[in-house]
Design brief:
Elements: H1 7-13, H2 23-35, H3 39-48, H4 57-89, E1 95-98, H5 99-106, E2 119-122, H6 128-137, E3 140-142, H7 147-156, E4 163-165, E5 171-175, H8 189-193, E6 197-198, E7 205-207, H9 210-224, H10 230-247, H11 251-261, H12 265-279, H13 285-290, H14 299-309, H15 322-337, H16 340-364
Parallel strand pairs: 1-7, 2-5
Antiparallel strand pairs: 1-2, 3-4, 4-5, 6-7
Helix pairs in contact: 2-4, 3-4, 9-10, 9-11, 9-12, 10-12, 14-15
C-alpha cells in the first residue's frame, strides 16, 4: 500500500510543508481531513503555530469554518460533563471520562481540535444498575429499544446500550470495562480504577492515568474494528505518546510494562508500529523492541490490512483492496470479542437486519 497518497498524514508529519502544497494538494488534504474528522485539528495546529496565513485563501476558508463547530462542541462537552457529574454525585460515584471527552477535559494535546459525537465514561460494574437508574431520573434513555441488542450489550459487551438525553439529544456511552468480558484479553478493570487521575477544575471528575489512556486508545482502535475514523484515532495515539513521553523520561518503560500487566501487548505493538509508519512518531528503539512480544503470527498480512484500513476513509486513499481490508478487520474484531458459537449467529442476524432495513427504505421511497 502506498501511504504517500495520505496527504493529510504528510502535512501532520511535516507541518513546514504548508508553504509548498499546491491548491490541488490542499483540496485533497481538506477532503481527507473532513472524512477523518480532523479539519478542526488542522485549524488548531496552524492557529497555534501562527501559520494560517500561509494557507491559500480558498483552502483556509474551509479550515477556519471548522472552528465554529469545534468551539461549540467543546462548550457543550463541558456542560455535559457537569450534568453527568451532578447525576452521579447523588449516588456518590465519580465521573471517569474516556477517549475524546477525557482528552478535552484533561487539556492534553490530543484534545486540541478533537471532534467526537458522544461522551464516554467508565463505571465500576457493581454500581452499573444504580448509575443507570440515576441517569434515567436525569433524562437519559436508550433509544430504539431492541430486546436482542439489549441482551447482546448486557451479556457480551463492555458497555450498556448508548443513552440519549430526552431534551439535549446528547449521547452518553457508559462502559464498565474497556474490553468485552468474552474477549481473548483478560483485563482486570480494577487495575484501571486504582490509577485514575483527577481533572483540574472539576469536582469528582477523573480520567484514566496517562499510560492507561494510551493503552485504552490503542485497544479501542485495534480491537473494536470501528475504523471509519481510524486515522483520527491514530493521530490521537501520536499526540498522546509525544506529549506524555516529553513529560516523563520513564514513559516508554512504564507503557510497555503496563501493557504486559494488562494483557495488551498486541494492541500496543500495533500502536507503535503504525504511528511510526503513518506519522513518524519518535519512539525509542528499545520501546519498539520490547513490544515485539505482541507481534502477530503474520505481521505482513496485518500490515496489508491495517495500512489500508487506517487511511482516511476517502477515495483518494483507497485501492482495490481497501474495502476488503476493512471488512476482514471488522470480522476480526467481532471474532476477538466473542467465541465462534456466539459470533456466527450474531453476524447472520446483523446481516439479515441490515437487509430488512434496506428493503424498508426502498419500499418507503
Amino acid at each position: 500500500m502506498d501511504i504517500s497518497n495520505n496527504k493529510l498524514a504528510e502535512l501532520l508529519r511535516q507541518p513546514e510543508k504548508i508553504k509548498k502544497f499546491s491548491l490541488l494538494d490542499w483540496s485533497v488534504v481538506i477532503q481527507q481531513a473532513r472524512a477523518s474528522n480532523l479539519l478542526y485539528k488542522l485549524y488548531c495546529i496552524f492557529n497555534q503555530n501562527d501559520s494560517l496565513e500561509n494557507i491559500p485563501l480558498q483552502a483556509r476558508r474551509h479550515i477556519e469554518a471548522s472552528r465554529y463547530t469545534g468551539e461549540n462542541l467543546y462548550q457543550s462537552v463541558f456542560r455535559e460533563v457537569e450534568y453527568i457529574n451532578a447525576a452521579l454525585q447523588s449516588i456518590d460515584l465519580p465521573v471517569i471520562l474516556l477517549k475524546g471527552a477525557a482528552y478535552v477535559a484533561k487539556n492534553v494535546d490530543a484534545g486540541n481540535g478533537r471532534l467526537f459525537s458522544d461522551v464516554d465514561i467508565l463505571v465500576e460494574k457493581n454500581f452499573l444498575p444504580e448509575a443507570e437508574k440515576v441517569f434515567k431520573q436525569h433524562g437519559w434513555f436508550a433509544n430504539d429499544y431492541d430486546e436482542y441488542n439489549d441482551h447482546y450489550y448486557r451479556t457480551w459487551m463492555h458497555e450498556i446500550p448508548a443513552l440519549t438525553h430526552i431534551k439535549r439529544d446528547s449521547v452518553l456511552d457508559v462502559h464498565h470495562a474497556i474490553v468485552p468480558p468474552t474477549s481473548n484479553i483478560k483485563l482486570d478493570t480494577s487495575k484501571l480504577l486504582n490509577c485514575i487521575e483527577k481533572v483540574d477544575g472539576f469536582a469528582n471528575v477523573f480520567t484514566l492515568s496517562s499510560v492507561d489512556m494510551v493503552l485504552h486508545s490503542a485497544v479501542h482502535l485495534f480491537q473494536d474494528g470501528e475504523l471509519e475514523h481510524g486515522f483520527r484515532d491514530l493521530v490521537d495515539l501520536d499526540s498522546l505518546m509525544k506529549e506524555f513521553s516529553a513529560q516523563d523520561p520513564e514513559f516508554w518503560m512504564k507503557l510497555v510494562s503496563r501493557a504486559q500487566e494488562l494483557d495488551l501487548q498486541r494492541s500496543i505493538f500495533y500502536a507503535l508500529r503504525y504511528t511510526q509508519r503513518f506519522l513518524s512518531t519518535p519512539i525509542p528503539q528499545e520501546g519498539v523492541q520490547r513490544t515485539e512480544i505482541g507481534q502477530p503470527v503474520f505481521p505482513k498480512l496485518m500490515d496489508f490490512l491495517f495500512e489500508r484500513a487506517l487511511m482516511p476513509a476517502h477515495s483518494t486513499c483507497d485501492d482495490r483492496f481497501t474495502a476488503i481490508a476493512r471488512w476482514v478487520l471488522y470480522i476480526r474484531a467481532h471474532y476477538l470479542r466473542m467465541p465462534l458459537y456466539l459470533l456466527i449467529p450474531h453476524l447472520i442476524r446483523k446481516a439479515y437486519m441490515k437487509r430488512v432495513e434496506k428493503n424498508k427504505a426502498v419500499t418507503t421511497q
